[in-house]
Amino acid sequence: MKIECFVLLHLIFAASSDVLQKCCEPSEVIVDKNSTLQCDPNAGKRLQTNFVQNQTVSNNTDTLCVDVFAENKMVMFYVDQYGTIEKKMELEDEYYPKCCQLGHIYNDKLHSCQPANITSSTETTIPLNSFILVGLPQCEVIVDFFVSDLKEVAWPTRILHVKGESRSFDGKKFCVDDTVSGSRYVVRICESLDVCDRIRCIHKCCPDGQSFVNGSKCVDTFRYGIDLHSSANIEEPDAPFALIHGKPKSIYRLKNIDFKIDKSGTFSVYRNATGSYSHYKSSEQMYCFEHAKKGRINGYNFFAKVPQLKLKMKFVITRWLKILSCIFLLLTIAVYLILPKMLNLFGKILLSYSLATFMFFFLLCLTDFLNEKYDDSTCKTMGFLSILASFWSFTWLNVMCIDIWLSFGTPRTFSGPLQRNELKRLIQYSVYAWGIPLIWVFIIVIFNSTAILSKAFHPHIGDKKCYMENTGDHPENYGYFTFIVVPMLIQQIGNIILFVKTLIHCLRIKGEIQRMNASSKKNYKVGKEDKYFRLHLVMKLAVIMGVSFLFETVSSVYNFNKNSVTRNIEIVWDSINCLQGFFIFVVFICKKKIFYSLAERLNIRTPSKNDGTSSIATQESTHGNTIKRDTISLR
């Protein structure tokens, strides 16, 4: 009863003299630890005070005081002479709503706080012995109003008056402060999402006053807000806008991806997975903009929600066909490694070609499924590796053509030294097929990392996609045509020339042998199994590659998405292009001889092996010269 009377008298005295003290030090609040109330450092930076008297707890006297407790609730406490704190009653929250900390003012360009050179006008209006609540961390949508005089702003009893408009608010739904311009004041107000129907809304990842530090963790920094001028992807950055706070659950940094925010707040982003733009209204939470600081990342960045997209038919088909090609290429590689007899010079060339093609399709699969999770450096690395693997694939196909021509298309085809120098030829082939693409891609890296070339020929790797962009992405840029199409076109033309010369030579030799057989009793053989049929198979493969590459050449200068007919043509040819691994397996592995050789190697019983399709030793003879070669027929 004595304490209750003391509380009543103290309240009457405090109300008349305005000398109610704060219980703890300015940087402390009261917390409950193991059912004991005590002063503890204030972990946040949101609550500040301007009390004249503090540290009531340490005064060793019985007194009443006020402090913050449990989610910023203002509570009156009774403190006895022993420092024991007892909660008496909750008070009505009467916070001074300042947008920035004491000693700071609002930057109306960056929507952040910065130190003030002199005491701001708003600080002079803060009543003594009051709490100051900094910013609006609990608000989802914030709109900034600007007034030329603080007299235009008043907040008697939870009613805010701004430019003649009266609205009901509590102290946690608005704030006021000076601005760096010095000629106006800011009034920041919590709004609903309906405001996006009247003004452009921009999504900010963290609550007001916070930014990303060491990852996607929002931390009170106050110095970083929203700088729309930091990105060329935002139209009319000086136009008024509202801020929507909050990030999607799963986000990735928008780097190397084409996107923009128009003057209405619509967010448009190019999806590699669909080959088109997705558009989202400003009220949809599909992205957010935030200052991020982690390692080398220190600046404003856009982050987008990981989408659940309905892929276009083309991408649904081709991404799984690429995986199918990878599987068949691995099977091809496995067969060649299991059967050592297949690893003659031609077999080693085909093995290298299959490995290079597998690397190319594997990198494409990774890019298809993980592209939007790559950071900028990873995206560029994947782009360069994909280009390198594609050149390796085409160059080893070119090596096949060269080897066929050297083996069957020249007069020295059947000379002994050519056969005895297979190791030397393999080394020369390897230096050419692995080395030249490395040098060429290194040149591309230099041009992509510098401004040596004009914009018309810049490679643009990692700018919008994790590969070199074609003319569809940059209509006035010819980098893709220069660095990708032209070199591969030269190789393909070379392949065709070698095929024609080889075919002409083989037909001439065949004609000579037929004439010799007609005029002689001897029966000359030309090693058909290891010669003409091998040439035939490689020709089929090169035709497949040539046709698909011809389409790539056309698609680099023509947009096939203009109408449904060309789109369907693009789907068909892209599907053929993505099935190269399957074609390689069918052409080179799907043979009876290889089946029985695998069965023999793996100790698998087969119905019959006496049909002449097992491993054989072929006799190649012409003009009295005979060369024995252990090989597996590729027919």
Give an overview of the whole structure.
- 37% of the residues lie in helices and 22% in strands.
- It is α+β, with helices and mostly antiparallel strands and 635 residues long.
- A hairpin with a 2-residue loop joins strand 1 (28-33) and strand 2 (36-41).
- Helix 3 packs parallel to helix 10.
- It is elongated.
- The protein starts with a helix and ends with a strand.
Summarize the model shown.
The chain has 635 residues and is of the alpha+beta class. It is built from twelve helices and 28 strands. The protein has three domains: 91 residues, no CATH class; 209 residues, no CATH class; 260 residues, Rhopdopsin 7-helix transmembrane proteins, CATH 1.20.1070.
Top-tier CATH class of the largest domain: Mainly Alpha
- Biggest sheet, in brief? 5 strands, mixed
CATH superfamily of the largest domain: Rhodopsin 7-helix transmembrane proteins
Strand order of the largest sheet: 15-16-11-20-17
Number of domains: 3
Percent of residues in beta strands: 15-25%
Rough shape?
elongated
By helix and strand content, what is the structural category?
Answer: alpha+beta
The gyration radius over C-alpha positions equals 38 Å
- DSSP strand tally: 28
Instruction: Indicate the CATH topology of the largest domain.
Output: Rhopdopsin 7-helix transmembrane proteins
- Count of DSSP H/I helices: 12
Indicate the low-confidence ranges by residue numbers. Answer: 1-18, 609-635
Helix content: 25-40%
